[in-house]
Amino acid sequence: MRRSGTPFDAWLADDPEVADLVGQEADRQSTTLQLIASENFTSPAVLAAVGSVLTNKYSEGYPGRRYYGGNRVIDEVEELARRRACALFGAEHANVQPHAGANANLAAYQALLQPGDTVLAMRLDQGGHLTHGSPASITSHIWRFVAYGLTPASDDPEAPGEVIDFDQVAALAKTERPKLIVAGATAYPRVIDPEPFREIADSVGALLMFDLAHPAGLVAGGAHPSPVGIADVVTLTTHKTLRGPRGGAILCRADLAKAIDSAVFPGLQGGPLEHVVAGKAVCFAEAMTPAFRAYAAAVVDNTRALAAGLAAEGIRLVSGGTDNHLVLVDLRPFDAELTGKEAQEVLDRSGITLNRNTIPDDPRSAFVTSGLRLGAAAETTAGMGPGEMARIAALIARCLRSRAEEEALGAVRREVAELCAAFPPYPMLVSGATGTERG
Ligand SMILES: *Cc1c(COP(=O)(O)O)cnc(C)c1O
User: Are residues 273 and 346 located together in one domain of the fold?
Assistant: First the structure.
């Protein structure tokens, strides 16, 4: 039977070109290792919700306050998603309409700031996100961003450094007087404790936003401390560790609800994607189950095993390790000549998918880099454990060491395929199948 990438294979067959591409992508996701830290395998229920007739409905506005008729059912869908988001995270208010994490951040800034206001956020080249004030992002054109960074690396194994420098955050808060402090990162392998950020924000009368895009699933599953109730606003994505459809959400206190809602619509977006909102509702419910708690704990265990395996191969880990779903590696001690770009490309050819990433004080450009970012969230969903993570680490090192030898790379590719075959992410998705049992 042929592998399928959708629960609606029979209907997609009406467009053979798109059907073929979806099938090819299902093959790629199932036969190569998915180690991109911001990706996951969503459930068949999420896929089905996103593929539903809810995509047909225009529903500008919010439940009970829509601009178009016919929104009785859509109101219930969005209410359900909002209620579940609040229950999952213990939030007073949830906006589930942001089309993506970037939109959620823009809306939060628009709700909390005036143009020109100062925002203190994490340096991009040390783990921050584009929407935290990159010169390439519109955020930096509207608001004035000041960046904090990490402590320097040290040779002391007990205190390896490269963690958020709270002394620097506090000092910058004092001198720059930001209206808003942003906590959260896109390439940071440690727990981000919201408490010291809250203390610093309070000491200068700043608001605190926590960008939970990456660890939302770890917080939902109880593996990381929650910033909800500590930060004024929490933004998140639903498609990273939370394992839902591609999208964003905002959680906030009741007194900020109106400002947040108006910033999302009509401030930033038009009609919401209610089929995706339904998928978000599904993932919020999934994240409330004991199985998801076990998943979040397994992600952390697996990432630790991956990190230990890489370290054993002589690959340096930024900050000396990991507490979350990702590791950031510095390739220079392993091979001074090897760039992140070349490593990403050679691993890709061996069926190992990850991304190059700048490391703190990277001497190379953001396009070339000296580092790699790897995550275990997706393959943990597929059922892999610490044993497989150790094997993956060894395969990565073998691939990088023998990157000029086609034969050796072919052998790695075959072992990767074997490993993937034992952990199919969508065993229920084959052409003609109807069941949704998850293996
Ligand atoms: C991924 C990410 C975002 C943006 O998410 P998109 O859905 O890609 O727009 C925002 N902030 C952080 C910290 C992220 O990691």
Answer: no
Last residue of a domain, one of 263, 286, 309: 286
CATH number of the domain at 309, please: 3.90.1150.10
> Each residue of 23-43: pLDDT tens digit?
999 999 999 999 999 999 999
Q: Which of 210, 233, 237, 239 to mutate to test the pocket of ligand 1 (most atoms within 8 A of CB)?
A: 237
8 Å CB contact between 269 and 243 = no
Ligand 1 environment, Cβ below 6 A = 38, 100-102, 105, 129, 131, 184-186, 211, 213-214, 237, 248
Confidence of residue 158 (pLDDT cuts 50, 70, 90): confident
Residue 281 tokens read as 């509702």
User: pLDDT by residue (tens digit) across 329-368?
Assistant: 999 999 999 999 999 999 999 999 999 999 999 999 999 9
Distance of CA 16 to the CA centre of its chain: 32
Domain range for 300 is: 294-431
The answer to whether residue 437 scores a pLDDT higher than 50 is no
58 is catalytic: yes
Distance from Cα 383 to the centre of ligand 1, integer Å:
25
**Is 148 among the catalytic positions?**
no
Separation of CA 426 and ligand 1 centre (Å):
25
- Domain harbouring 139, CATH code: 3.40.640.10
- The two tokens of residue 59 are 């529903």
Residue 43 included in any domain:
no
The CA–CA distances, whole Å, from 130 to 25, 134, 341 equal 27, 5, 19
Q: Which of 118, 235, 237, 322 is catalytic?
A: 237
67 is catalytic: no
Based on the fold, state whether residues 237 and 328 are members of the same structural domain. Answer: no
Cis previous bond, 266, omega within 30:
yes
Total structural domains in the chain? 2
Closest-CA residue to 149 (of 157, 228, 133, 37): 133
